[in-house]
Design brief:
153 residues, two-stranded antiparallel sheet, 14% strand, binds zinc ion, 3-stranded mixed β-sheet, 5 strands, alpha+beta
Amino acid sequence: MKRRPSVVEMVWSSHTPNILNQLHRDGERVTVARTGLIDVIARAKKPLSVPDILETLAKRGLDVNKTTLYRDLEFFVKQRMVIGIQLNERQKRYELADRDHHHHVVCTSCDRVEDVKLERELAAEERKIELATKFKIERHALEFFGLCATCQA
Ligand SMILES: [Zn+2]
Ligand SMILES: [Zn+2]
């Protein structure tokens, strides 16, 4: 029998307790699967795919079924706690909504993804776009595609 880690045993990322408290305040269910899921996403240094999440949960001894995982992901996206990102793959990746602003670099050969920060952010560009289009810009997403070091070799 697999050992089920209790919620208290888990060492949480700094984001996890806030999110769990928010769920609790909203009267939403705080299940072991939801707790594990949000913590895996909160600790990741890059956006995770569903197989990534399942693998990490399994390593923690949490056997979450795929349907539950998809349902919980959908729930967190709806709560605006998690965002889904579509890169050049069939599957989506997920990351915490409440993170420092950043971008992604994606390998077109092996789909490896890393977070990157721009030295100069795009505020000036956003203003130009607002002037040109009369849009009120709320956010932007920007991804860079290329070959990672391994795939160049
Ligand atoms: Zn690669
Ligand atoms: Zn940016």
